[in-house]
Amino acid sequence: MGLTDVASIQAEYPTSTRHFLLIGFLGMFVGSIVFCYLAMKKKGNNITQTVTFIIASVAAGAYYSMWSGYGVTKKVEAEGPQRFIFWGRYIDWLITTPLLLYDIATVVDAELGEIVMLLGVDVLMIVAGFIGASVLHPYKWAWWTLGMFFFAIIMWMFVGFYARCRENKPEVADKYKVLLALTVVSWCVYPIMWVIGSEGLAAVSLDVEVGFVCLADLVAKVAFGLYLLFAVLPADEEGESAEKTSLV
Question: What is the Rg, in whole angstroms, of the alpha carbon atoms belonging to the chain?
Answer without folding.
Answer: 19
